[in-house]
Design goal:
Elements lengths: L22 E4 L11 E4 L3 H40 L3
Length: 87
C-alpha cells in the first residue's frame, strides 16, 4: 500500500496565529483503514492569555459587586441590631 504524507497547517480562527506546533494527529481507533485521522489542536497562547485576563477581570468585578452587597447587608444588620439594643 502506498504511503501518503499530508502536510497540515493550522491557524487560530480568532487571531490567525499558526498552531501547527500545538497540534497532534492520530489514527482514531475503530477505523479499519489508515485513511482517516484525527487532529487535536490546542488554543494559541495569545488567545489563552486573553481569555484568562477576561475571566480574571470578570471574577474581580463579580467579587466587588458581591462584596458591596454583603457589606450593605452587614451594615443594615448592624444598624438593626443597634436600634434594637437602644444605641
Amino acid at each position: 500500500m502506498p504511503e501518503i504524507t499530508v502536510e497540515l497547517e493550522v491557524f487560530c480562527s480568532t487571531c490567525g496565529s499558526e498552531l501547527t506546533t500545538d497540534s497532534e494527529t492520530e489514527s482514531p481507533s475503530g477505523y479499519s483503514n489508515n485513511h482517516a485521522f484525527k487532529v487535536t489542536v490546542s488554543p494559541c497562547g495569545k488567545c489563552l492569555e486573553e481569555r484568562f485576563e477576561e475571566g480574571k477581570e470578570e471574577g474581580k468585578e463579580e467579587g466587588i459587586e458581591q462584596g458591596k452587597k454583603e457589606g450593605k447587608e452587614e451594615a443594615e444588620e448592624a444598624k438593626k441590631e443597634g436600634v434594637e439594643s437602644g444605641n
